[in-house]
Amino acid sequence: MLLLLSAAAVAVASIPLVYLAVRTSEAGMARVLDEVVSARVGTLALRTLALAAVVTLGCLVLGVGSAFVVVRTDMPARRLLGVLAALPLAVPTYVAAFAWTSTFRGLEGFWPAALVLVLCSYPYVFLPVAASLAGADPAQEEISRSLGRGALRTFTGVTLRQIRPAVAGGGLLVALYVLSDFGAVSIIRADTFTRAIFIEFDLGFDRTGALVLSSVLVLLTTVVLAAETVTRSRGARFASLSSGRRPPNRVALGAARWPVVALLVGVAGLSLGMTVFSLARRMAVGVSRPGAWSDVLTAAGNSLWLSLAGAALTMALALPLGLLTARAPGVLTSTLNHLSYLSHALPGLVIGLSLVFFGINVAYPIYQTTWLLALGYAALFLPLAVTSVSGAAVQAPPILEETARSLGKRPVTVFRTVTLPLTLPGIGAGAALVFLTCMKELPATLLLRPTGMDTLATKLWSNTSVAAYAAAAPYAALLVLLASLPTWLLAVRSGILAKEVGP
Amino acid sequence: MSRLEITALAKGFGPVTALDAVDLTVPNGTLLAVLGPSGCGKTTLLRCVAGFERPDSGVITIDGEVVASGTSHTPPHRRRIAIVPQEGALFPHLSVRGNVAYGLGRAERRTSRVAEVLEMVGLAGYGDRMPHQLSGGQQQRVALARALAPRPSLVLLDEPFSALDAGLRTDLRRDVRAALRAADATGVLVTHDQAEALSMADAIAVMRAGRVLQFGPPADVYRAPADPWIATFLGEATLIEATLRDGRADTALGTVEVPSAPPGTVTALLMIRPEQIHPGPGPSSHAPAKALVESLDFYGPHTLLTLRLSDGTQTQAQVQGPHPLPIGTTTPIHIKGPTHTWLPT
Fold first, then answer.
1. What pTM does this model have?
2. A240, A399, A407: best mutation site toward chain B, by most B Cβ within 10 Å?
């Protein structure tokens, strides 16, 4: 049952892949080879992978480092800095890229793009790693210390291993995000696959070139996924039921505390401060006038409603697959999981195109409705939701459900009274993440929204593309503000804000 | 309450045979202990009875009603079989009252049933606590109350005391036994702790490698184990090969009376428990055997002596209270009570 529902969910998420396969095969082998086998594609592939590698590495260093000092040291104002470290998640990469390029003229190319992407994406690593550091059992570290290992060797030998799944999961999200990012790389003019796909699509009437390039991107994603699977190791899948866990040990920073604080504040300044400063300046000195406030409010309403629909549909599809991942791990389950990741790495542009095609030819009743866009969001963000559902399912070990059934409750009742209440907080966090990501999403929204329905993201885009920066600023500001709410929720969930309990 | 009958139950996981032709009967209101080392199939047996696993073949009946066979399978929630899992497994999001009331119907929740079972397990007044505010022993008591509340036909206990410390365990065992009696519940206790099985159960089934090796009252199984492996699994035992002649055997422990021996001369394996070996010359006319005291373990109420016999065999004797013999002395020893023997087959 669970397997069937999961397969159905993955099938829905794979609609764009099917479209891609059909269209690519229609183009004929000769044409495909012609497009793919070229020096340009090789260079693009290398550059895209290099960007993904650099950004992932940067995010891992920044994310794990800041998570460690926030959760495991006696740094001053650690709760405030924890929130600051999570907040860049609320800034869409294209908004940050716009902020940087409008402040420093002529900023373009590989390294600036890498910088902006790292600054916007490191919370993908920070949040899960901080949560995992907060929840890790300190007894294991103490045992390592008592066996004569120093602080550093304990960290690399025990702590890093405990948080490994979180580090790997966060790193994977970053790598996939970079592969599919469109807004930042096109504003900063870094030549990557997504930008090339967009240019192909924009230049010619023939979309085959763009689609073939998209297929190559899917292959690159497979490489990244395979690399992640190879390095994965099986760990304990269920939370310990025993009570009386102690809070984690904290490292006394001593004299190093202020430089560490300065470092974190500096990072937050570069990621958040830069955006806020630039938006404020634009609003103050811009020559273009913002439109009526009612326009802004309508766009905000649309953003909220579309993101809500997207998050709801995504979570509904993710629930069976996430539970299956936690309960019955196996070849079939991981294959389904990986299939869902493939769509996640597709540029929103390709998802948008394929669903337009799907809407016109197969599912006309939902074409030009909110639900086709919601479907696009689901195809894009299913893995985000699946990860949080399977993480949450760990909170409800099977023994609890079995006990409940032995007490005479039907499976449906057990699900409602035991499984759901225990997993709901984690599922809620997943929904918040999906909601947030839907709100920031741009290219698929541009293509799939019902005609005339503007969101904050599309308004922002249409204004910046005609250089109406001051008009764009209120949309950007409201978008970041609204996105901060679910981000804050996520930060709270991660446990980094937990107050000290007892000695 | 109810009678559980298991006939020719078999269950395999791929190439591994977890249960192999298991036959067991648990009469109304009694407690059966299934005893065996890890991996012997005892937990699989419990899960088959609870309905979490489907047996490959064989029949399980409760009060004559078939709940599982090779072809039919009553789902767990219709079996009226409650389980007390390892470490309690209380629902962490529910209070003690919520946990205990979980298996009750809407109408019954309004009665005093919850207070009644909490009283029965010695936790009256704990209803509003949350599971994480309870000690390990209290959590187990709540898990038992939760299982007993809906008046199940059968209570299954899956190593319920293994996570607790020794002192607490003894108390809890006694209380659990009393609570089960008070509820007139039929129970199956799965454990690898022989003291737990011997002290709590009305009957013991010793399992190894998916098979029930012996099934009977605790005293019988302890006194007359079916084979040497069971003998040593149930407690300390010295096994000596000896020649039986006219109902007695000459061993390094001295001359031993074997009332059950067949007439004539046969070779047999003898089992002697530490509490049967006593230091000092015995009342018999035979010359007593001698043993060297190698070590002493003082436990308070009794002392365990490790002895080396003249032929090099090591054995243990259990004596009341502290023992004055220092290590290194040689003492005469004698054996009291009937000795169990296995004749060669």
1. 0.72
2. A407
